[in-house]
User: Which sequence fits this backbone?
């Protein structure tokens, strides 16, 4: 007889590539896989919170809407005087609040842990109770781009600096079977010409580092299912390519989960 396991999913960082998470979660719902625990780093925490609030379909509609703010998010973020960052990040949270009015972890339908980095003490900060909005802001705070956020007095930045795919977090929450989604895999679904400029080299180097860090973080045990959508051709700022990213995440999840 089929055992009813507690199934956890760890959603990694990746900026715009995070839209692939929406496709993965869409496949999970279609396959009627019941998720009991969620952990998220960076964009994974943002989308994980939306899924845990029950509003992932609404978010997908927002991404696919040609008039959507999210299609131009990098150009509409609120700039600030560059002391700690060049952008505040309030507009990202504004989008979250337009999709759901949930503001605390306790209101979510599924338990969630978000991951950020204590940049001063080089420590992983896990948040799973209280102020959800501040926890998301800390988790998505790309260094130099979005403003650092204080969590329990600690200056926190993007969780991808310390744990790009927070697998251990869902294990610690009680998940018996685990799914991990790594957006820094180095596979593409199209032939690449390997003609690089300086921006391409920097982006590719960051992906190589984060992919290696991700796989090293699995040293205490691989996830039961690892989903790595073939999205190497996308950049972190490709927010206008939401449909392609959703479709690739969906197709890869169907392949792995079926």
Assistant:
């Amino acid at each position: 007889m089929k055992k009813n396991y507690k199934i956890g999913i760890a959603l990694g960082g990746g900026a715009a590539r995070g839209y692939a998470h929406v496709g993965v979660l869409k496949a999970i719902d279609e396959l009627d896989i019941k998720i009991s625990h969620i952990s998220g780093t960076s964009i994974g925490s943002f989308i994980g919170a939306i899924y845990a609030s029950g509003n992932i379909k609404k978010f997908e509609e927002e991404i696919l809407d040609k008039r959507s703010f999210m299609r131009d998010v990098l150009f509409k973020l609120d700039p600030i005087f560059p002391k700690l960052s060049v952008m505040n990040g309030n507009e990202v949270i504004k989008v979250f609040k337009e999709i759901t009015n949930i503001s605390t972890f306790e209101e979510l339908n599924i338990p969630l842990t978000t991951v950020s980095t204590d940049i001063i003490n080089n420590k992983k900060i896990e948040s799973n109770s209280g102020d959800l909005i501040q926890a998301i802001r800390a988790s998505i705070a790309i260094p130099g781009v979005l403003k650092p956020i204080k969590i329990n007095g600690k200056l926190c930045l993007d969780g991808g600096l310390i744990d790009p795919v927070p697998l251990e977090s869902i294990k610690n929450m009680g998940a018996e079977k685990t799914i991990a989604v790594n957006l820094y895999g180095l596979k593409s679904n199209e032939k690449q010409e390997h003609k690089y400029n300086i921006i391409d080299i920097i982006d590719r180097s960051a992906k190589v580092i984060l992919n290696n860090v991700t796989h090293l973080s699995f040293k205490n045990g691989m996830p039961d299912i690892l989903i790595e959508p073939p999205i190497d051709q996308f950049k972190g700022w490709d927010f206008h390519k939401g449909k392609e990213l959703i479709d690739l995440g969906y197709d890869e999840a169907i392949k792995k989960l079926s």
Summary: The chain is about 35% helix and 20% strand. The chain has a mean pLDDT of 86. The radius of gyration is 17 Å.
